[in-house]
Amino acid sequence: MPSPLAPSATDPLWWRSAVIYQIYIRSFADGNGDGVGDIAGVRSQLPYLRDLGVDAIWFTPWYPSPLADGGYDVADYRNIHPAFGDLAGAEALIQEALALGIRTIIDVVPNHISDQHEWFQAALAAGPGSPERERFWFRKGKGADGSEMPNHWVSNFQGETWTRVPDGEWYLHLFTPEQPDLNWNHPDVRREHEDVLRFWFDRGVAGVRIDSAALLIKDPALPEVPENPGPGEHPNTDRDEVHDVYRSWRAVADSYPGTRVLVGEVWMPDTKRFADYLRPDEMHTAFNFDFMARPWQAAQLRESIDSMLAAHAPVNAPSTWVLSNHDVTRPVTRYGREDSSFAFATKRFGTPTDLELGTRRARAAALLSAALPGSLYVYQGDELGLPEVDEIPLREDPMHFRSNGVDPGRDGCRVPLPWRGDAPPYGWGGTPWLPQPENWAPLTVESQQNDPTSMLSLYRAALALRRSTAALGDGDLEWIESEPDVLAFARGEDFISVTNLSDGPVGLPAHEQLLLTSEPLVDGQLPSDSTAWLRRSPITPQRKARR
Ligand code: NOJ
Known about the structure:
Helices cover 25% and strands 12% of the residues. With 547 residues, it is of the alpha/beta class. It has an eight-stranded parallel beta sheet with strand order 9-8-7-3-2-1-11-10. It has a five-stranded antiparallel beta sheet with strand order 12-13-14-16-15. Strand 5 (162-164) and strand 6 (170-172) form a beta hairpin. The longest helix has 17 residues, at 355-371. 1-deoxynojirimycin is lined by residues 69-70, 72, 109, 175, 211-212, 265, 326-327.
């Protein structure tokens, strides 16, 4: 008997309040015992995800790929990497998850493909001037012998963005050479991606997460990047024409029953330009990285919350709340550092970290973010409080290699999850593809699931309360006057969240019931670096009149 659907299962606006769990499939669970996570592993752990209380799962790319960039180098958008399973398994997973009330979101990677994709192989074989090359950015080089790159754009993974092929032409790649950029002015490219969306929507996926969503369109003249490009003036990022792509994708999504959502990965400091992606005929939501990147300081977080809510309001889109993902330093590590902000450029080996403090703050941040208006993303392993792993002898990430080993890269947040047992491989078969620390026994699901003080228990309790509290999820927030370095706000008539980022304990606002705390209260006060959820008495007509 399938379990009853989650309350949101039939709601067309489910995405406005949803809790979405991110699965980095290689590292989630190992179904066939080969040390690599797979679809069978996810299927076996669907009850775990149901009990955690998530509304949807988002899979990072699960397609055939040489894995030069962890799967973001897709060789075939309509199949599954053999190490992860097969298409029939993916189809079964989508249906089994739905039966538990969990929707499936998949990753699409439109900016680039793998150099092993048949289009790129055909372009290499067909040679200069061929129609096959027009789907990419092939150009002659500069200089008398064409040996200079067409321009000096810098890769998102550092270094050059052009690679020369044996016949002398160069091709553009904003990431690694194994990820050639597609030419979005070409009708084949547009048609192909709309077909890929249909392929997966036909199989029941509820939405797509759009990789590097602002990069697709390039200025065809390929000029150098100006010093301070104005809005829309950057030659390869956030160009105005990119919105046409998402308008067509929205039309595809809207042609399906139920709400199929478009979720953008849009890194954009200009909040107005960011919100443009969320106009009613474009994407539904986009990741709010501003909040994630802020340090653990009340004024900073409050400013981010206010500015992101204000940016979303004119387009009537809900904000998202994201504490981490497969690209960034795990929260328990980040919040335990002197500089608790996140930036790719400042990642270094050996940064001193107080994991106890970081874990305490990550618990507080989990409740804070789950109480804010909009949808919530949980990256696998954050519900277990996993730290970033520094000790990885053989790193795989191109971000690490392309920085000449200065940047630790992203392997440290991608270590296979510990399920059970006292030592590695913690429920995995063989040798996990990235080594797990020896001291993770207290962090396994097995050791946390019956411990009421564990991170896992906190997440379960928070997500259950979030689901049963109508005021949480989509809606408004009202700040409550509080002491300095305290973030206190009300949702709806009677829900209050208070986060104490000050050095000492603080009193709580008047309330009828203490719903949940990230740390026990001390003499009725909320200790430093913790969050409390409260129920106050519903607003009386008199109090309403005073507001
Ligand atoms: C963003 C993805 O999250 C990241 O993992 C990937 O390396 C780049 N886009 C390139 O696809």
